[in-house]
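Subject: Protein entry, chain in single-letter code together with its fold tokens

Area: Proteins and the way their chains fold up in space.

Attached in line: The record itself begins immediately under this heading.
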Amino acid sequence: MPSQPDSRGFEIVARQDFSDVTYLLEVRHPLMAKAARAGQFVIVMLHDHGERIPLTIADFDRERGTITLVIQAVGKTTREMQRACTVGTHLFALTGPMGEPSHIGGQRRVVCVGGGLGVAPIYPQARAYKESGAQVTAVVGFRNKDLVFWEDKFRACCDEVIVCTDDGSAGIKGNVTEGLRQAIAAHPDIDEVVAIGPPVMMKACAEATRPHGIKTMVSLNPIMVDGTGMCGGCRVKIGSGIKFACVDGPDFDAHQVDFDDLMIRLKRFKTAEKAALDRFEESCRIGRTAGR
């Protein structure tokens, strides 16, 4: 895996804020950009005492030598990154690319479904399927039109883009499952569906494709610690067996995933996560007060 390029870490060369909680970081790492494949992820540390967090690679540019991460500020570390990561600053550690790349090639027609933050990591898959010669439909979902991002990027690499919003303010009214149903009705020759988003959304997509016998893959991002399969924290139930999402995945057959078990496991550290976030926000409040 690529090593750290200099003592400062990995430079953030671009940032874009999509909403008050969702933001994009483009990070310079030529070796990782060269090695990255659709479906892989990285482990990030903001500073030397920071938490290790897994983030899916949302894009990579081999010519610029950069990878792109799209992050939602929901916990202590992602909110700390939201405040600290500006153009010219550095990430302390960036390990990857990790996980098995998505198996792309040989499909004639594919539907790529992304819900909310899952819209970002489904993009490199949609692009890769199109580059492999497949007909690609993208189904992307957001709460409302103000949260829509990357529609232009999807239209540039897909044959069809179905935008869904919960309130109907852009595209069709409804969630991505409704968009997926429309795609299935319009294209009886779909070879594969790929879905990335919250577990409940991926489960709904799996149930939408199951009656039609359409191969469906999902990208799982359970709780990870080391990202190398040693800690066992990311184990998931697939069929009658147990897999580690970090080394066996993150892509798995959606019709074999035990989503209920996954959702229970994701709640294991809710109390500790909330306590960490509360301490961080309190320290920020004290800092702002002291600076007045």
In short: The two ends are 45 Å apart (CA to CA). Residues 213 and 245 are 24 Å apart (CA to CA). The first strand starts at residue 10 and ends at 17. The mean pLDDT is 89.
